[in-house]
Amino acid sequence: MSGGWQNLASNQDTSVSGGCDNVAGSGSAISTNCPVFNPSMEAVTGGYLNVASGHLAVVTGGWANVASTSKSAILGGTGETVSFACQAVPSTNTC
User: What is the pTM of this model?
Assistant: First the structure.
């Protein structure tokens, strides 16, 4: 566990790196009541020169990627930018 709020890493070799009420492995969420103090809970989990600045935005790797809108995700690549809420790169279903 490296950050976040009310997260659970319940199985051997599992991890949660941030966020709120997440579970890695078997088990149920500790709670479903995340305290949102301000728009936040962004994560960058790897890569180089990546930015996740939108509420619940994430960049998981790659180089020089920017996820600046709410609930946006960039899974990798170079120079990718997400500019609409609920958008993902590569393209997947929207929220």
Answer: 0.74
